[in-house]
Amino acid sequence: MSTFQPTPAKPWWASAVIYQIYPRSFADGNGDGMGDLSGISEKLEYLAALGINAIWLSPFYLSPQADAGYDVADYRRVDPLFGELQDFDEMLSKAHSLGLRVIVDLVPNHTSDEHAWFQEALASPSGSPARDRYMFRDGRGIDGVEPPNNWRSIFGGGAWTRVTENGVPGQWYLHLFDTKQPDLNWENPEVHAEMESVLRFWLDRGVDGFRVDVAHGMVKAAGLPDWEGHTAMVSGDETNTLASQSPAHQQKPAMDPPSPFFDQDGVHEIYRAWNRVLKEYDGDRMLVAEAWVEQPERLALYVRPDEMQQAFNFDFLLAGWDAQRMATAVDNSLLANAAVGAPATWVLSNHDTVRHTSRFGLLDPTAFPKGISTEDEQPDEALGLARARAATLLMLALPGSAYVYQGEELGLPEHTTLEAAFRQDPSFFRTNGVERGRDGCRVPLPWKASEPGYGFSSGTPKEGRHAAPWLPQPPSFAHYAADTEAGVAGSTVELYRSALEVRAAHALGEGTHAWAPQHDPGAGVVAFSNGPITVLVNTGSVPLDLPPAAEVVLASTLDSVSQGKLAPNSAVWIAS
Hints:
The structure is a single chain. With 576 residues, the protein is an alpha/beta fold. It has helices at 23-26, 37-42, 44-50, 85-97, 116-122, 189-205, 267-278, 296-300, 314-318, 323-339, 356-359, 381-396, 426-430, 477-480, 482-485, 492-505, and strands spanning 17-21, 54-57, 61-62, 74-78, 101-106, 136-137, 160-165, 168-174, 209-212, 238-239, 249-250, 286-289, 310-311, 345-347, 401-405, 514-515, 525-530, 533-538, 544-545, 552-555, 561-562, 565-566, 570-575. The radius of gyration is 23 Å and the shape is globular.
């Protein structure tokens, strides 16, 4: 298997730019309308030329796809939708030959209800070893008709489902997400051993790391106490997305009391054990936590030297287009991570959020809707893109590691007019459409503007012609297709390539951050220096004077700088 050797100085992940691939929507290599591993392999040269350092693949494991692969039925098999294990090995080898590292998703909080373990549990009696691998409990009330506690699912509705035993109602099982995603019991040593075995299976194949789904989950408070609070996936301010109600959003209060099923101290022992597993292998293998934790200081605990290597910085993602919020997120993140000796991470979008190009085009560019539909406010597409490009220059100049979600390098917006008939996200159905869901950010990418499906599919299909993409693309995607942007001055993809080239040339990911004299968040200005580059971001409504004789290295748009001034909703890198 192909692997990298250890780096002599800082590990690669400390400053890497990592590109997230959502396999079903990245590229289809066999013409069936579903993205796959062969499609990823075909586009690896494109990614290498972009200038990223690694790719992260969302789940491609065997799954009934109730939650787009985050319901895993077999952690060691590739789902036929995406190919075979050989396709993965070939993709991994090609990525390594191009100098790209590969991170894969790991989903340890829950399995699919079609996993062999859960099927065995359903066929076994209460109190059996098979049931002890999951969170089965007796119900409350007469004959156990009430669930064991009042917990709510992240996707809406109750978090408990009752099973039938010998034709009569029996125990309940916990599923913090969909009913088809039963939570594992992390008090059971067999669960620990199995997940460590899964780690070794993929490490032996040569993967460079794991993104750990719901990394703050797994461990639950003793006794499973009732909790009146509410939590969500990437949960920013509570934003109302219904057209019939006020568009104002209210600040989401901190969880008090803390959730009894998230961010329990016991999760850290799991990651210490996993850290020891990774140290058995060469090549600076890594773990990155998807942990929705309220305070930066709590998040930093996940990246102590003997635990994980990175954790996603959701505070920065949630800041929106607001100078003060962005500056505060940068300060808090750098301070908290420095306290444990870990590099910071930065991210603007992912597969669980409305794309930042669209969020930044809303009347309130700090809003965080749970999807957007035709019934909701439609973003200002041009304004959102201008702000997104500026935010990218801010992010890529910060020290640490940055994550790029597929398509953002094209300036791709959210699909905000996707019809309900096409939606597949379980959160849409479990909330009766109140949450629009995450399908809008998961629409297949456009590669060639003039081809059917905008070139999403290639290869020779079995039926003689390419199937339609699994989610329909809006007509506007033709404007963002990769072939229309490649080599075009001022295009978003060329902005990303230029920024990544400058970032690498000046080792900005390994640099240091210092606020510049122009920094004035109250006036809408974010300004800092990192080595030879000074970054100015103008979130305000009036042009900003640049320093006299400023040497422009890179600007967020071709017309961002004029007559010594930085336009509103723009950013610039100048030589320090």
